[in-house]
Amino acid sequence: MSHIADILPLLREVNDLKRVRVASREGSLAEQLFMRAWGRLARGEPLKDVAASETARAVVAARLGGIDAEVLSEAGLNDEEIGSIFERAFDSITTGLNSEFAEQLKAAINPESGFEPNDTELPQFVLLLARQPRVRTKPAGAVRMTESHAEHCGVVAVNSYLVASSYGAAPERAFFMGLCHNVHYAFLPDAGATGEQLLGDKLTEVVEACRGRALAQLPAWLQHEARASLESLSRGDTTESRAFQTGDSADDTLEQN
Question: CA-CA distance, 167 to 128, in Å (whole number)?
């Protein structure tokens, strides 16, 4: 079992993926992760595979930044050489992880994975979340954060996967909670907690309506999975929901420090 304090340095570098960009693509690496994960799920890839490979890719990117398989392949490296570089990057940053868990995650590194969804392959709510700024309420009032909801959700998904072993949770389920938890903000402009509280007893109704609009854009099987995940999250009574809460709290804390 990994203790959360042991992997805080790793979570801090993952958090910085919100600010890492490359010239050849739109959005930060955290935003790209979020969109790629939803694109892969929407086209039918298994959640377990998507969660593991995207988390492993994020861990590698925390050290290599935008130096990915496409860059190295175009520079003439083969898959074996690329895989070796990725594994070195992974090992250099995962010393705080439980060794068995780290080896399982490292096995999910895939230098051959080159899927990058275009806008037509993504549900609309995914694109909207990439354009929706997060707002955090502080004593002085609502403060607009320097991140989008897509960036936040992508990093929380990875965090939740990485801390899952500390709770005996299924890491892919914790990851999916991170992807799903703010889907309503695609259609609900973020006014911060103080602004939302002014909706009074209508807040739940509005959130549910906006969430429903987002989930309706998913294939039926994935919509079912998302609803089940959000219900589990709201109850907070599973190991996965506890892993998610830790991943979410870690992201908020690291974003402000």
Answer: 32
> What is the sign of the dihedral through the CA atoms of 121, 156, 84 and 102?
negative
* φ, ψ (nearest 5 deg) of residue 97: -80, 150
DSSP 100-127: HHHHHHHTT--TT------GGGS-HHHH
Q: How many Å apart are CA 164 and CA 240, to the nearest integer?
A: 7
* Residues 69, 87: Cα–Cα separation, whole Å: 12
Number of domains into which the chain is organized: 1
What percentage of the chain reaches a pLDDT higher than 90? 84
Which of 8-22, 34-48, 103-117 bottoms out in mean pLDDT, i.e. has the lowest? 103-117
Residue 73, token pair as written in the block: 């392949």
pTM score, whole prediction: 0.95
* Neighbouring-strand partners of residue 148: 133
Give the domain range for residue 39.
4-255
